[in-house]
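Students often ask what a holo structure prediction actually looks like on paper. The answer is less mysterious than it sounds. You provide the chain, you provide the ligand, and the output is a string of discrete structure tokens encoding the 3D arrangement of the protein together with magnesium ion.
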Amino acid sequence: MHPLFICLIPLTSKGGLSIVFNFAWVNMSKIKALKGFKDLIPGESEHWEVVADMVRDTFKAFGFSPIRTPILERTTLFTRSIGETTDIVEKEMYTFDDWDKKPVTLRPEGTASVVRAFLEHRHLMPLLPVKLYYQGPMFRHERPQAGRLRQFHQVGAEILGDIDPKQDIELLSLLTHFFDRIGLQDLTLEINSLGCTVCRPPYRKALQQYFKTSLENLCKDCNRRFHHNPLRILDCKKETCKTITKNAPSSSAHLCEACELHFKSVRQGLDDLKIPYQHTKHLVRGLDYYTKTAFEMTTQNLGAQNAVAAGGRYDGLVEALGGPSTPAIGFALGMERLMQLLPEQPHLASNLKLFIAPLGENAYQKLFPILYALRKKNCRSEIGHPGAALKKQMKTADRLQAEYVLIAGDQELSAQKLVLRNMSTKKQTEIGFSNLLDTLFSEIFK
Ligand code: ATP
Ligand code: MG
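The corresponding structure tokens follow.
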């Protein structure tokens, strides 16, 4: 017999209902979130909202407009932009056939979608440069570990339509200011230049020349990278490969005149704004579309996953996706890593101003419209269960960390003597019901 039948035998109709409910609860609790996918629950979620609000007003202050793109896109968008031989495309994308049998992919990053949307709605964004920012979930099938999830969240900014190094400086100043504002220290802005279509090919050759003699000591992945994209060998995390790359030629020594000048102007601009940075000569990015300026915001406080944010110029991407030549630059920062670095902010979770404790059904009916009026004015307040004893309601108020509790039963209501208790000073005052709202607004929600 199915266990559900056993549970459905009610002794009373009330008892029966509660048994069914408990059964469902037990069964449901066996379904867990997927590995690498995480719930964000109260206690933590409030902190995320504070950061999201800060993103909104900081990015807007720098002249960026919000954009939201779909989570699911045609697979070719990512294979064409990120690069067929990158780790992301080769082994990390969540790709499946849609009902029409065409392959679709859960976005592994935001830039490709922003560029697609920019091209699709080009006529609505005629003024260049276009400055956009986004926040949202990304999906990569990586090995889950601290700071590395399969669904993670990024905040990103893109400037499309201007090749001038002034845009690089603008973007980097936004990134630096955002981390300052949020109170994160001990971060290093590392920058490099990856060159362009003119100077990258000779640099690739120089790298192949250098690595040619060490192929048997490089890992399997790097052996593949040697042919497809030797720059990526510089990003390998394996110790043996890292040792070999130590003396590899640097891209900055191979820059053409235009890239050299661009890189110089970016550094000068950062110096002018007194933004500290470090030129990391072997810094490369894991995506194919980057050109010229590339950067990372790194920390020593996150173990192996030391990058909190990363980005760079991608002057060829819009064209590669079928648009007109449109130089661009952008970055993405990882929310999970950022939140890991933030100092604890316990006060964020506890800002319930008022808990109303109604003693009995009649009091509840009189006080609920008061609660509704407060909430309509955005005053965070809560009400207890009228059937619960005062002691129990006070416990609930404590658990919710309410600043004030308003206590009222039939007696208090008819005597016009409701009790308002300040939970931190324990001081109690009496207030009347007729002017209750005005008193609450002037005393608590000032
Ligand atoms: P990583 O150094 O972790 O390999 P990446 O080069 O793959 O990063 P980008 O694609 O440039 O990273 O993404 C920008 C930021 O997004 C990273 O600096 C990081 O903070 C965050 N990020 C990337 N992948 C993950 C992930 N799997 N889980 C959590 N955060 C991530
Ligand atoms: Mg990665």
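The CA atoms of residues 43 and 349 lie 6 Å apart.
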